[in-house]
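Hey, I'm writing a tutorial for new members on how sequence and structure tokens pair up, and I'd like a real worked example in the thread rather than a made-up one. If someone can provide the structure for the chain below, I'll link this post from the tutorial.
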Amino acid sequence: MTRRTLERGRLVLATHNPGKVVELAELLGPHGLEVVSAGDLGLAEPDETEDSFIGNARLKALAAATASGLPALADDSGLCVDALGGAPGIYSARWAGPGKDFTIAMQRVQEALGEEGPRTAHFICALAIAWPDGHSEVVEGRVDGRLVWPPRGANGFGYDPMFVMDGKRQTYGEIPRAEKEADNHRARAFVKLLPLLPPLAGQ
């Protein structure tokens, strides 16, 4: 079955997370896509009722595409801690509470892990593109690493200050944003998304 590709023009980013909007807008801009966030359009955030990152990404993209009448891109991502059976996983944002305070979320992870035992973890990112007619395409990226305590660094967002990618010494909260965005779970998913995007300008 042929995969559908995007045309140049407006694309809704189905997220209210300003950090994700910045990352995705920078990735999509060179492809001639004019991005606008669901928050800017006043679109409601749908309940994430699926049991996987891919399912929730598709759900959010379809909701935004249907409500806006434009193609939409949704991200569903989270931290999966091996010793916690993959938690917080798809509930990563919920661990931050109604105020979305990830200081609380990181503390909850630390308390669940305790001082001893393995601290391996990975980030997963699913990216879904949906069209108003209900068609969707989904890809997924992953990056492995380990958790540290206490959190380090003020860069990034979410669980970044407690995550060290394999092969690195600094947390995602310590390394420059450009370095993190060049090879994180979202960037790896984006590479898989490239065949669905318009060619870069000049190509």
